[in-house]
Amino acid sequence: xxxxxxxxxxxxxxxxxxxxxxxxxxxxxxxxxxxxxxxxxxxxxxxxxxxxxxxxxxxxxxxxxxxxxxxxxxxxxxxxxxxxxxxxxxxxxxxxxxxxxxxxxxxxxxxxxxxxxxxxxxxxxxxxxxxxxxxxxxxxxxxxxxxxxxxxxxxxxxxxxxxxxxxxxxxxxxxxxxxxxxxxxxxxxxxxxxxxxxxxxxxxxxxxxxxxxxxxxxxxxxxxxxxxxxxxxxxxxxxxxxxxxxxxxxxxxxxxxxxxxxxxxxxxxxxxxxxxxxxxxxxxxxxxxxxxxxxxxxxxxxxxxxxxxxxxxxxxxxxxxxxxxxxxxxxxxxxxxxxxxxxxxxxxxxxxxxxxxxxxxx
Length: 362
What we know:
Blueprint: H1 2-13, H2 18-44, E1 77-79, E2 86-88, E3 105-108, H3 115-121, H4 126-131, E4 148-151, E5 156-160, H5 167-173, H6 178-183, E6 202-206, E7 265-268, E8 274-276, E9 281-289, E10 294-300, E11 305-312, E12 314-315, E13 322-323, E14 328-331, E15 342-349, E16 353-355
Antiparallel strand pairs: 1-2, 3-4, 5-6, 7-15, 8-14, 9-10, 9-13, 10-11, 11-15, 12-14, 15-16
């Protein structure tokens, strides 16, 4: 007011008219208002010194700064401009706990399945497929399209209790601790400490070990007799091998690898694909195999090695024939116990041990 009065007095001394005086006063008022607004805006635009400050309208402490997408540490907030209520938003990373399976489920065998491929689907070992099905014979994989298999929730054995068996005897049989069997949720033992089992009851043995007894393809080899066992060609050998094997098929893709219950490799092939001799030798068996391998050829290479070619659709050589490495000896098929056209190929040493063919093929 004093400033305004001085302006008025000065105007009178200078003899400024009333209209000019009013205009001057208005200009001064507008200027003062503008300055006031500018100062207010500048104050509001100052940055916060820290993110850890108190919200004036709610009394809520804001969270410390966190890395982007760190939703577990930062609860999201939203402010309603009408009433300034703080609203908690949903956490987009809410996790639903998933319990591991404990029940035995079933699986129906499809065309082209092998124990290895089925095991891979359920993240199990091939042996678990065998040990989870007490009636499953490992010979030739023993799989038939349409067969229903038990699938264990974990690697191990599905044991069917025999008359008179105790849980203590079962755990020793499968090389696991009693505590591991009892603690597995799928077995549902009570906490009384009395772990009785009844004949016919199925018990899951987590990480247990079962037997892998199986019958080799072809006539049984009598210990120490080799090809002089009943059922084999006993004449002179026509050719001797090089001990350097080649692939018996144009494809090197496997549908089943070598494992304890399957000492061979399975090579899926179109029906009728030519099968060749992996090395030179003499055919000591060519015919139908009754253990599940269908049309079978066995070649003695005269140096301790035998090779086996199973599930053929057609046999092109006979017992006693000499063959050379790379010669076509059969056509691929799906005879015997088989879920699709393939070659079951094996290498045997001295009529006893079946070797991993992948260790001998280029």
